From TrEMBL:
<keyword id="KW-0521">NADP</keyword>
<dbReference type="InterPro" id="IPR045000">
    <property type="entry name" value="TR"/>
</dbReference>
<keyword id="KW-0560">Oxidoreductase</keyword>
<dbReference type="GO" id="GO:0016491">
    <property type="term" value="F:oxidoreductase activity"/>
</dbReference>
<dbReference type="InterPro" id="IPR002347">
    <property type="entry name" value="SDR_fam"/>
</dbReference>
<dbReference type="InterPro" id="IPR036291">
    <property type="entry name" value="NAD(P)-bd_dom_sf"/>
</dbReference>
<dbReference type="Pfam" id="PF00106">
    <property type="entry name" value="adh_short"/>
</dbReference>
<protein>
    <submittedName>
        <fullName>Uncharacterized protein</fullName>
    </submittedName>
</protein>
<comment type="similarity">
    <text>Belongs to the short-chain dehydrogenases/reductases (SDR) family. SDR65C subfamily.</text>
</comment>
Amino acid sequence: MAEAELNSREKRWSLKGMTAVVTGGTRGIGHAIVEELAGFEVAVHTCSRNQKELDQCLQEWKNKGFKVTGSVCDVSHRDQREKLMRTVSSIFNGKLNILVNNAGTTIAKDAVEQSPEDISFLMGTNFESSYHLCQLSHPLLKASGNGSIVNISSIASIVAVPQSAIYAASKGA
């Protein structure tokens, strides 16, 4: 491949200098997404419900030379989502390139045993939070001129999984 073609491809596919928010970035898929984006020189802000986990991950990423910031946020709470996006707007100067709605949870129970509180918590965390964060991030994504949203779902939304009816519904939504 010619050097000019390689440089052109690198420019087209580069994420260097972009900004991203990844919810639930201290564990599992979210952690891997934060590392992958940071490895492509994206400035990432993540959130977690757990301050200790967040601090450990931020230190780990700092040691790797990644540009990652973070804040405590339980995405099941509307006011915390709003605070998260105000923080993100401040850190990234009113612009955002990538929103990754990754945070999610489940409560393993038979469908007939799910309480109204269980249903509300699962739908709030897995569906409402993603929808609301899309709304809140819209002005920032638009201001960047180059915005993308990634919603992490689950195979459980299309395949029956025991004790996961509400989880499946929330991820399907």
